[in-house]
Amino acid sequence: MNIATTVLAILIYLIAAPLVGGLLAGVDRIISARMQGRYGPPLLQPFYDVLKLWQKENILVNRQQKVYVLSFFVFVLVAGGIMFGGGDLLLAVFALTLAGVFLVIAAYSTFSPYAHIGAEREMLQMVAYEPMVILTTVGMYMTTKSFSSFDIVQEESLLFLRLPFIFLGFLFILTIKFRKSPFDISMSHHAHQEIVRGLTTEFSGRDLALIEVAHWYENVFLLGLVYLFFAAVPAVAVTVTLATYFLEVFIDNNNARLKWQHALGSAWLVTLVLGVSNVILLAFR
Amino acid sequence: MSFLPKSPWLVHYDASSCNGCDIEVLACLTPIYDVERFGVLNIGNPKHADIFVVTGSVNEQNKTVVKNIYDQMAEPKVVVAVGACASSGGIFRECYNVSGGVDTVIPVDVYVPGCAARPEAIIDGVVQGLGVLEAKYQEKGKAAS
Ligand code: SF4
Fold first, then answer.
1. Does the ipTM exceed 0.95?
2. Spatial contact of B134 and B5, defined as CB atoms under 8 Å apart
3. Which atom of ligand 1 sits closest to the CA of residue B20?
4. Which residues in chain B are closer than 8 Å to A209, comparing Cβ atoms?
5. pTM (2 decimals)?
6. What is the dihedral sign for C-alpha B63, B69, B73, B76?
7. Which of A146, B45, B74, B134 is most buried by a 10 A CB count?
8. Of B9, B47, B76, the CB nearest to A202
9. Where are chain B's structural domains?
């Protein structure tokens, strides 16, 4: 991959990802409403929400919170840029983790009890999903002998056929990453959580808008990872990626929130059983 | 033009309502009325909200709470007093512990009449609040420029 195509790919990602992410969020809200027997908001509602937040007053609890929120935003973009630019998948995953850490620090910096509980739970969630994310990249490396997403996307055979259990495990932790029930314990899209809004309780105006847009970027990044499992046949890959998203919406609407102990325990159990067994199978092939 | 009227987020507080008006506020979210059609969300966090919906009269105990929620909301913001109690104190007006309607503590922009206020009336009140929200946004812009 030469420099020009890399830059082009990154530019397309930077511009298209929030559009795709926002539209998916709009579809999510409509489908959720229909599942609850309601009509639901317009498709473009997530964009209206973010634009409105941009026009609102930004109440700062302290000055450093802006730095942390901006760092979260930038590192989510960096992670996506690395992956969609054909770079090292492992590095991209680590950049995403760093972004998550910045969001936790941002919540901690506000000293609000609700944001504190949210931040603590977010860290537990990171502990819960991180091993499976790493195992996913490791599994992809073991099948293609490369961490570069450019090489992985060009793999001739379906990765899914050799990583079926890792794919299932990844689907499981995807619910945590998408902040969907039953794992939306640190911050919920829906109101009236027992910790108000968790992580984002103290953010308003532009800071909240940035967090929302970063979440769209993040979702596109994660769906990109799903795509890689089926990259050999693009038509199948796109279908499965979209189906995955709708599966998450379905799960979200059919589950109550779990306690963090269950989230952590089940995520690790799934990682251990599905993720590790798949890696062992690959090692002995 | 602002995007405020396209995405009004509410925070609802029950001052000392008899719960009649609260049920009607919640009824607005149910499939029959589904206010999310208009982008309305019951967000439950004053820092994220644009519209403060208060039900019930204000008493000496929760005066400070109402004031506090109002102060925590980001500008521009609008207060909608729902029901006879929130508007004037209603049947609780003469109670020894009641200081009257919500406007005795914070400035109110829209009064929704009724005991209990009907969901249609509440939605109408919120829609009128959107006009006030837009006007406040324009004013803020003028003040800044
Ligand atoms: S206006 Fe009527 S229904 Fe509403 S809180 Fe007062 S007494 Fe209850």
1. no
2. yes
3. 3
4. none
5. 0.91
6. negative
7. B45
8. B47
9. 9-139
